[in-house]
Specification:
By secondary structure, this protein is α/β, with parallel strands linked by helices. Helix content is 38%, strand content 12%. Helix 5 (134-156) links the parallel strand 3 (121-126) and strand 4. The longest helix has 23 residues, at 134-156.
């Protein structure tokens, strides 16, 4: 029974770390949505220097310990994908974009067309607050993500291959202490590695 306690503590630590990561994520509001802010948030991380190759091996000699750089290259943990959350407003309880939302998405489209992001694919995540049923929130968040995707394609010519839409419902609240907080009703753009 003593083994269960460390596992429970690890699970708790992982949950707290996940919550802290969500709490640190910033939602770009109207005055903060600029092309440069979006490019900075969504640009792929600079490629780390290529790991050193394993030293040549022969049948008679196999190193007991691999060089640290080579080991790091094979066992490296993947960096989390680049992401930016935008407070995109919709008509209440619908997926209809407001005029202010379209202006923010116009800026997003400009960033997505920039040289730094021109080859990047994206997932548009729709989020909802928990005021409706789970099924309703999932459907609403999917509709909102689809609306953003459709707007980016029709108004700005972005290709369907570059943009995927996913509804998250109310499963990833950014502010769980205030369920009705506007940041819980957001759109998150995730760069797909």
């Amino acid at each position: 029974m003593k083994l269960r306690r460390p596992f429970a503590l690890l699970a708790l630590a992982a949950a707290l770390a996940c919550g802290a990561a969500q709490a640190q994520e910033k939602v770009l509001r109207e005055g903060q949505v600029t092309q440069q802010a979006l490019i900075d948030a969504l640009a792929p991380a600079a490629a780390a220097s290529a790991p050193e190759e394993d030293p040549p091996r022969s049948r008679s000699f196999r190193p007991m310990v691999r060089p640290a750089a080579a080991a790091a290259g094979t066992a490296a943990t993947a960096a989390p994908p680049a992401r930016a959350s935008i407070l995109v407003t919709f008509v209440t309880d619908s997926a209809e974009l407001t005029a202010r939302a379209k202006k923010a998405l116009d800026v997003l489209a400009g960033a997505m067309k920039s040289d730094k992001l021109a080859s990047v694919r994206f997932t548009i995540e729709g989020h909802a607050d928990p005021r409706g049923s789970e099924e309703h929130n999932l459907k609403l968040s999917q509709g909102r993500a689809d609306s953003v995707r459709q707007y980016l394609m029709s108004a700005h010519g972005l290709t369907a291959e570059r943009i995927q839409a996913v509804g998250k419902g109310s499963s990833a609240l950014m502010n769980p202490g205030d369920p009705a907080a506007p940041e819980n009703r957001r759109v998150t753009i995730v760069a797909v590695p």
